[in-house]
Description:
The structure is a single chain. The chain is an alpha+beta fold. The protein has helices spanning about 5-25, 30-45, 55-75, 95-105, 105-110, 115-130, 135-140, 145-160, 165-185, 190-195, 220-230, 230-235, 280-285, and strands at about 195-205, 215-220, 235-240, 245-250, 260-265, 270-275, 285-290. Strand 5 and strand 6 (about 270-275) form a beta hairpin. Helix 1 crosses helix 3. It is elongated, with a radius of gyration of 21 Å.
Amino acid sequence: xxxxxxxxxxxxxxxxxxxxxxxxxxxxxxxxxxxxxxxxxxxxxxxxxxxxxxxxxxxxxxxxxxxxxxxxxxxxxxxxxxxxxxxxxxxxxxxxxxxxxxxxxxxxxxxxxxxxxxxxxxxxxxxxxxxxxxxxxxxxxxxxxxxxxxxxxxxxxxxxxxxxxxxxxxxxxxxxxxxxxxxxxxxxxxxxxxxxxxxxxxxxxxxxxxxxxxxxxxxxxxxxxxxxxxxxxxxxxxxxxxxxxxxxxxxxxxxxxxxxxxxxxxxxxxxxxxxxxxxxxxxxxxxxxxxx
Length: 292
């Protein structure tokens, strides 16, 4: 085994851990894999002869890459990465992402998405992965005390969230949104009507309609027909957290075009759909793509 093979073998020993760190920091498996790949690239070009703890070194590299990605994401919230938006023929999400998302917990991902990049990094590295504050501070470029305060702020938000109730609420929303998207993709009118409240209302701004005019529909039949007309678009759409609730986003080639904000009732039907295409409104939304 040559030096490159040995380095690759050592890296593979840490890959699962690095992916776990990156996923909790970024909330997206494609982004997490990009961060891990960047860590490998940096490893192959670095002199690690004096590195005593390779796992710690790699974790620090992944954390720094993730921090840069988080900060860039906040500067351009309206943009989605192209890898998050596969072609229709490649729309399946890898099973390991679903498993990892379930292990992290949807409610936790929701709350993590409300933290600033620095708060998220400090909380995840220290509270979830037991990294000392001295090392967290080195990643952030701040003092250990500042890193401690950032983690504390993140911890208060996490603990202050009504996690059990919120998790149940999100699970209900996700179940309904999944059924709605599947019925839209399949052109199944009966399934669409079943998931919509009898008096459901749909509003769409002028940017989201073919006619370029605001539109309003009411009733399950009228809204279902509109959804069927957009079946092709549904094939390229994904479930996402939209301002903390489960909705649907359409972003061909990574360019965010349309967002559907859904209101889901306790009886598990959709009572309202807000179709957003206005770029200004899209920029104000907090979005996080969900594994299906």
